[in-house]
Design goal:
The protein is mostly beta strands. Helices cover 4% and strands 58% of the residues. It has a 14-stranded antiparallel barrel with strand order 2-3-4-5-6-7-8-11-12-15-16-17-18-19. Strand 3 and strand 4 form a beta hairpin. The protein is elongated. It starts with a helix and ends in an 8-residue tail after the last strand. 39% of the residues are buried. The N terminus is likely disordered.
Length: 412
């Protein structure tokens, strides 16, 4: 069974206190910044991996990849984000730490690629803090806008291998999360009461995902250097989410509930397609395309201005010499890098917000079939022209990945 100290590490990660000191004001729109993957390994290769058929890591982006699991796997991680935000008048730096996700996978039949996998992964996050002087009710006042919260998915599913080496997978997903938006007005004059308006939105609902992974197409090519070539695709569909809303007003006189009720939120589907090629059992090249039509997002039956369709193109590279049967610690290290270009869902003006990122990563062995993975990303989003914001974003993910044989009958 898995070493007890590993369980303690994972428990500490999941129950740790989250610290946040602010973030981009763009996350006020829709459900906030999108999380397209929880693992440090995927971050290191540009966020790609829809066709990365390798059973030493779990993936939440394509359930068909679970067919390659050869032993029980347990993964969890944390992430750090630092953002420098600039406008025409100055700049500010914000940072936060967060839980990036948790997954566990059990192989039920290696022959047929049947596995059972479950996990908890955040899918979007709101985090911003903006303040300044504005004119309210004819008087200059100090106004603050800040928000926090996230939506996560709890999922479980399975995969299996079809004839001719194709694999499919499916999962059921439950979405839950709470987001708070706060506006605070403090008047310089004593004639008016300082006021705080807080809007809370709680989501809950379900959905599903389906994925497919091709067999090794490299076997049909007359090229010895291509040892593995695959194509993968997945789609994630979210049913309409039930949404509890409340608006609370607070002054020095007291607190009242302005409104509350139950409504619905419609999240768009997400589709991705990708390819991977391994050369000489050492070099792996991965490329993905991701699409999510956020122009179809609706809250309470209405679309939201400032949203457009999300697209992401990414390419990654990984080096690992797995030819060596017996290797040293340094020979077991994996190296990764990648590039990504993202047309974000944010469109506050006629011109939308785009993002270009550089990626890197490395994996260190923690014994047989276990690793500690580090993924880094430096991204540039937006610009200061036309009253927009320019952001320099630094992400660092650490994922602990453990693998051991469970439920194995011992020979007598």
């Amino acid at each position: 069974m898995m070493n007890f100290r590993y369980i303690l590490v994972l428990f500490a990660l999941i129950t740790g206190v989250v610290y946040s000191s602010g973030g981009t004001v763009y996350s006020r729109t829709g459900t906030g910044d999108l999380n397209n993957g929880y693992s440090a390994r995927r971050l290191g290769i540009g966020g790609a991996g829809l066709a990365l058929a390798e059973g030493s890591n779990l993936s939440d982006i394509n359930p068909a990849l679970w067919s390659g699991i050869s032993m029980t796997r347990l993964e969890a991680g944390i992430n750090y984000r630092g953002i420098t935000i600039e406008d025409n008048s100055g700049s500010a730096y914000y940072s936060d730490y967060d839980f990036s996700g948790f997954m566990v996978g059990f192989p039920l039949s290696q022959k047929y690629g049947i596995s059972l996998t479950a996990g908890l992964v955040p899918i979007s996050q709101v985090g911003y803090k903006v303040e300044g002087n504005e004119e309210v009710l004819g008087q200059v006042s100090r106004v603050k806008y800040y928000g926090s919260g996230s939506i996560s998915k709890i999922f479980f599913g399975s995969s299996w291998t079809l004839p001719y080496g194709f694999s499919v997978g499916a999962s059921f997903q439950y979405y839950t999360g709470k987001i708070s938006y706060t506006s605070e007005v403090r008047f310089f004059s004593s004639d008016l009461q300082n006021t705080i308006f807080r809007k809370s939105v709680s989501h809950h609902g379900n959905g599903f995902s389906f994925g497919i992974l091709s067999s090794n197409l490299g076997e049909y090519l007359n090229e010895e250097a291509i040892t593995d070539l695959r194509i993968g695709s997945s789609i994630e569909v979210v049913n309409t989410l039930d949404t509890d809303t409340s608006v609370i007003s607070s002054t020095s006189v007291g607190t009242i509930t302005v409104s509350e009720g139950l409504t619905e939120t419609k999240l768009p589907f997400k589709f991705g397609i990708g390819a991977s090629a391994t050369l000489s059992k050492k070099y792996t090249i991965i490329a993905d395309y991701l699409y999510q039509p956020w122009s179809e997002y609706e809250f309470n039956g209405h679309s939201e201005p400032g949203l457009r369709d999300f697209t992401r193109m990414s390419i990654g590279f990984e080096f690992y010499d797995n030819k060596r049967r017996f290797s040293s610690f340094w020979e077991q290290i994996r190296y990764r890098c990648g590039l990504s270009y993202e047309q974000s869902q944010y469109q506050p003006t006629a011109e939308g917000i785009n993002k270009f990122s550089l990626h890197g990563g490395i994996s260190f062995p923690l014994g047989n079939n276990s690793t500690i993975d580090l993924g880094l990303q430096y991204g540039m989003r937006g610009k200061t022209e036309n009253n927009l914001l320019k952001e320099n974003i630094f992400d660092a993910f650490i994922t602990f990945s453990f693998g051991e044989l469970w439920f194995v009958r011992q020979e007598r």
